């Protein structure tokens, strides 16, 4: 390790953000073979960060948390000075879990994890894309291959993954139906999950046919309604941490209607696959085909408050830390 120091947020114990997190001086990490040093200009805070802080994953402590980032390569080499972005939650990297994460002034990253940041986005906006868009891309584009003219039901569509999935669906020419506890701005087709029959509402919106696709981000009690909302031969992808047990008849609901059901966990993807998603996202943001995420930026010494905002539910606004001396 180098003798140079940096400001960092450290997960020192498990519990609430105020109990678990502290800001302190840490050594600037030394990049290993195939790695570069990135000065972090902005770093997103995700529900996974909050979940890790509770100790439910058994992450060794102390550790610097954080997986999403936007910044500038400051180590020598061909990438020196390049603005980069990405997400370090992938197989063999696990930023903020098994190695120091991005909620610090500097982070050492494998070169294969880096993608060139879109010029149209600020650092805060770029850091807000992160894990949400990775999960949305994996499900909506890679797994379900959404197409123009199709209809997709998105449960939990008011959250960050839901907003990303909505944007990707619209880019592909599909029609999103958002099922959530509150209606996001700019949404035409909305179902209140607190009242009403979701499958019936979907049929009303699709002239009795049912949705072509469903993305279940919530799980639990919403999984069966999402399945029942699909047309014959429809497809569903699920990405959630809800471990609630549910019971329904898979023969009747899945087999007899020839549905295709898949589950996605981004932690098991390779770093090069994650970087490839960011490479494809960059020109879409630069050309204005995808909207910039809504962001609330926090200085590093307010990290516990940013984490608490995520834990409380941030109504579709991404909480982002600014580890450096400047703000946007």
Report on this model:
- The model has no long low-confidence stretch (mean pLDDT 93).
- The protein is α/β, with parallel strands linked by helices.
- Helix content is 27%, strand content 26%.
- The protein has 2 domains: 5-117 and 294-322, Alpha-Beta Complex (Quinone Oxidoreductase, Chain A, domain 1), CATH 3.90.180.10; 133-265, Quinone Oxidoreductase, Chain A, domain 1 (Alpha-Beta Complex).
- The two termini are 31 Å apart.
- The chain is globular, with a radius of gyration of 20 Å.
- 48% of the residues are buried.
List keywords for this structure.
Quinone Oxidoreductase, Chain A, domain 1, 6-stranded parallel β-sheet, alpha/beta
Write down the CATH class of the largest domain: Alpha Beta
The backbone outline, from C-alpha atoms, is globular
pLDDT < 50 stretches: none
CATH-assigned fold name of the largest domain: Quinone Oxidoreductase, Chain A, domain 1
CATH superfamily of the largest domain: Medium-chain alcohol dehydrogenases, catalytic domain
Radius of gyration: 20 Å
Proportion in β-strands: 25-35%
- Please report the number of helical segments: 9
First-residue to last-residue Cα separation: 31 Å
- CATH architect. name of the largest domain: Alpha-Beta Complex
| Overall mean pLDDT | 93
Count of folded domains: 2
Care to count the β-strands?
A: 15
What oligomeric state is this?
A: single chain
- N to C succession of SSEs: EHEEHEEEEHEHEEHEHEHEHEHE
Q: What is the helix fraction of residues, given as a range?
A: 25-40%
Q: Structural class from helices and strands? A: alpha/beta
The biggest sheet, with number of strands, parallel, antiparallel or mixed sense and barrel status, is: 7 strands, mixed
């Amino acid at each position: 390790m180098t003798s140079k120091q940096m400001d960092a947020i450290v997960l020192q114990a498990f519990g609430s953000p105020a109990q678990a997190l502290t800001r302190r001086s840490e050594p600037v990490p030394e990049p290993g073979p195939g790695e570069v040093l990135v000065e972090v200009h902005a770093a997103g805070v995700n529900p996974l960060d909050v979940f890790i802080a509770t100790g439910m994953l058994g992450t060794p402590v102390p550790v610097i948390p954080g997986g999403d980032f936007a910044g500038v390569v400051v180590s020598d080499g061909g990438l020196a000075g390049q603005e980069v972005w990405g997400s370090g939650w992938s197989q063999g990297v696990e930023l903020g879990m098994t190695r120091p994460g991005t909620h610090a002034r500097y982070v050492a990253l494998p070169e294969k994890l880096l993608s060139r940041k879109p010029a149209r986005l600020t650092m805060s906006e770029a850091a807000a894309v992160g894990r949400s868009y990775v999960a949305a891309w994996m499900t909506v584009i890679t797994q379900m291959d959404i197409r123009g003219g199709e209809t997709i039901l998105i449960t939990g569509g008011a959250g960050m993954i839901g907003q990303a999935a909505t944007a990707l669906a619209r880019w592909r020419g599909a029609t999103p139906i958002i099922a959530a506890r509150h209606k996001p701005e700019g949404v035409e087709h909305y179902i209140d999950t607190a009242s009403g029959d979701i499958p019936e509402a979907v049929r009303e919106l699709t002239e009795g046919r049912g949705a072509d696709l469903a993305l279940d981000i919530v799980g639990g009690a919403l999984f069966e309604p999402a399945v029942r909302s699909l047309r014959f031969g429809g497809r569903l992808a699920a990405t959630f941490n809800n471990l609630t047990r549910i019971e329904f008849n898979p023969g009747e609901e899945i087999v007899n209607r020839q549905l295709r059901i898949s589950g996605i966990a981004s932690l098991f993807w390779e770093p090069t696959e994650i970087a490839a998603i960011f490479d494809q996202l960059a020109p879409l943001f630069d050309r204005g085909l995808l909207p910039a995420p809504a962001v609330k930026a926090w200085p590093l010494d307010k990290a516990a408050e940013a984490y608490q905002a995520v834990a409380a539910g941030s109504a579709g606004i991404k909480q982002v830390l600014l580890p450096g001396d400047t703000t946007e």
